[in-house]
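Worked Example 4.2. Consider the chain below.
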Amino acid sequence: MADKIDPKRLSDLNDRLNAKKSVSKKETKHEDHYSGAQLGWRMVTELVVGMLMGLGIGYGLDHLFGTMPLFLIIFTILGFAAGVRTMMRSAEEAQTKDTIVDSDDLSIKNKDDNDD
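Applying the procedure from the previous section yields the following structure tokens:
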């Protein structure tokens, strides 16, 4: 009995697997929308935090040394540069992650095409 393969059961199993795959694909598309929004807010937050940290350090040093606008301007610019650099790293990380996902999808499609 274990040696015989029932084509009807095999077909039912295949239908159930295809149904599960289609449901999971729909969910990932919905999730991608939120991933992009999260990435955008993360990048904005990184920029603002960098600028605020530079502003705070510059103000503190100006208050300590009595040179009011000098360190404030310098460290605000440095904080902006650090925020932009961090944003670029986040964008590169997201692009690398998208490239890996796209190549995985492509390899799955190619594998399915070769099975025919």
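The mean pLDDT is 82. Residues 38-115 form one domain. Compare this with Example 4.1 before moving on.
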